Amino acid sequence: MAARSLRAHLLRMLLPPIAALLVLGALVAYYPSIEPATTAYDQGLIDAGISLGTYIHTEGGRYRLELPSAVDQVLRRDSYDSVYYRVLGPDGEPIAGDEGLPGPPPDREARDGFVSYDTAYKGQKIRAVAVPAKCGDAACSVVVAETTVKRRRMARDILFSSLLPEIMIAFATLVIVWFGVKRGLGPLARLSDEIKARSPGDLRPIDAAGTPEETRPLVSALNGLLDEVAQASRNQQRFLANAAHQLRTPLAGLQAHTELALAKSLPAEVRAELEQVHQSTIRTARLANQLLALARAEPGARGNAAELNLKALAESEADGWVHQALARDVDLGFELDWAPVHGDAFLLREALANLVHNAIEYSPRGARITVRTGRNGSHSYLEVEDDGPGIPLPERERVLERFYRVPGTPGTGSGLGLAIVREIAAGHGASISITDATGGSSATRGCRVAITFPHG
Amino acid sequence: MRLLIVEDDAPLASGLRRILEAEGHAVDVTSRGEQAVLAAAQERFDLVILDIGLPQMDGFEVLRRLRTAGAERNGPLPVLVLTARDAVDDRVRGLDLGADDYMVKPFAMPELTARVRALLRRSQAHGGPRIVHGPLALDTVARRAFLKSEPLELAAREWAVLEVLLGKVEKIVSKEAIIQAVAGWGDDLSPNAIEVYVSRLRSKLEPAGIKIRTVRGFGYMLEEYKGA
Predict the structure, then answer these.
(1) Residue A346 sits in the same domain as residue A443
(2) How close B73 comes to chain A (CA, Å)?
């Protein structure tokens, strides 16, 4: 499912009703205000008609309009519109004024004695009123009309002045929604930042204080899940601790007794058998250790990460490695520089121990092994280099797989060491590279395994 | 020497007992933490080998009680902790509680016996006026050294470096640690200077079979004396 933007969704939902409200609001504002304005302009025409009517003269059944030219000028003067008039006799015969100015439609009813109507004259839309006028005993009528320039202008002004605030309100609504959603979702963003910043092993519940009411169910569901994961992780840790104890103690006993027996004088064939038992015991012990380490390196079982220094980590283990190396007549050396990382001390120690052990195990007598830690730019690294036989190029990817051993490799390894290293590196977001040794002679390519950590 | 083994796994306990008895020690074994605390309070032992994973009172608790009880007794009682658990916390906790050394099961017997020897030697030397290492003897009160009973001339700095190494036989010691132990206030000792002192010590001690091994890029290790 495509991710849906809550904001876009809200805007999509809000836009049509807002647009509809905008139109409706404009109409609601427009019509009530256009009506009185029209009436006011009509009233001007009516007044003009009434005035015109007073200039009708009756002389023995004949009607005449005696309009001083000054009055005619005043009447027709208008800033925007052309003004027309026409005076009609009792039988509708034209007496004076503009020829052909249309009279009121017959079906149009008078209001307060006046008829107002829209029509056209000389190709222009006009607004006209018919006003009754006394001419002697008879009833004449006056039609006054004007073009609709100022009326249209007024209508436009009214529409515009009612629309402008509406548009502003609509715009403000959209802006408020846009930022309101961002602001409203702020606590969620903070929540996700908090979760993102956590290390994989950090399974403490999320603090619900400071999160809004609406996200509480989400937070409490998350906390429920975290709690279950933490519980499962604790169970696994406990199982591993118990398994380690249950496996190692009898192995220690087995090793002790075999070594005791080997210290005695024995018939040659018994000694040979016992040597086998002893080797197997040591192998089993190492395998048990490696399987436990592998299980521990799995995400669910990870312990707590902390700020560490690879240099200090290597120094704390150096003594044991040096003794292993001496036992195999290998020259183990160190080039240790400050290398801070954020990680699990147990697992990193295990990774480093596996690399060193491999180097010691697979290098010939008299070989030279160097353990390095340091920083390369902002990346801390640890690496173990030897001048042993090296790992052929095509095998370098496969040696990281569990239980894989390069064909023809001597010794009794299980093929788990580098798989453990890979697992641990992956858990720390670190990368592994296997290359030829830099200082290797041409006879032996040597091997350098480096783990580079994300900057920390 | 008299040793106490606190280990609930019977085969391992009997194996340890026989190996240590073969080394010439008198060994008592108990499988219970409570008994170990009681025994240590009533009798004098030179070393305790303590398993952490004991039933009921665990090794940490035993260690804590030994340390609080030992404070008012005569001299420290060295404790070598054995554990089958590999959580880092265990190691740190064990050492914080005052364990003198730490071994993860399973282990090779020669390594155990070497560590036991080292611990016993250290506790004998501790506060004692005389440090002996094979044919070498240091009288720390009179500040005089003897090699094969012959007086041995040592410069002050050589003496200091040798004393540090003798305190950690079969353990690697970093150059920084030697500098820290040897240099007084305001002294500016370089790693190169340490190399000079070590090479002078070597020329004096190696003919007698005492070997100082170089750990490349790290420091030195005084090897256990195996005869000339």
Answers:
(1) yes
(2) 31
Q: Kindly state whether A257 is in contact with chain B, defined as any CB-CB distance less than 8 angstroms.
A: yes
Give the pLDDT confidence of A355-379 residue by residue, as tens digits: 999 899 888 899 999 999 999 988 9
A418 and A347, same domain (yes or no) = yes
Token pair, residue A39, equals 């009436």
Q: Is A264 on the interface with B (CB under 8 A)?
A: no
List the helix and strand counts (H, then E) for chain A: 9, 14
Tokens encoding A131: 């006003």
Work out the average pLDDT over A15-21.
Answer: 86
The phi-psi region of residue B9 (left if phi > 0; otherwise alpha if psi is between -120 and 50; otherwise beta) is: beta
Q: From A279, A303, A327, give the residue that closes a domain.
A: A303
> Of A241, A249, A303, which is closest to B9 when you measure between CB atoms?
A249
What's the domain range around A280?
Answer: 215-303
For the segment A286-303, what is each residue's pLDDT rounded down to a tens digit? 888 888 887 777 765 556
Residues A290 and A309 in one domain: no
In angstroms, the CA A133 to CA A138 distance is 9
- Of residues B90, B126, B127, the one with CA closest to residue B105: B90
Within A207-358, strands assigned E span 306-309, 331-336, 340-343
A344–chain B nearest CA distance, Å: 9
Please give the model's pTM, rounded to 2 decimal places. Answer: 0.63
pLDDT-based confidence at A344, cuts 50/70/90? Answer: confident
Q: Which domains are delineated in chain B?
A: 2-125 (3.40.50.2300), 130-222 (1.10.10.10)
pLDDT at A183: 81
Reported as type and span, the H/E element at residue A125 is strand A124-135
Cβ(A359)–Cβ(A369) under 8 Å?
Answer: yes
Are A341 and A376 spatial neighbours (Cβ–Cβ below 8 Å)? Answer: no
Identify whether A207 is part of a domain. no
Number of Cα atoms under 13 Å in the Cβ half of residue A433: 9
Distance of alpha carbon A10 from alpha carbon A5, whole angstroms: 9
Closest in A293, A322, A349 to B172, CB measured? A322
Residue A177 lies in a domain: no
**Hey, is the C-beta of A355 within 8 angstroms of any chain B C-beta?**
no
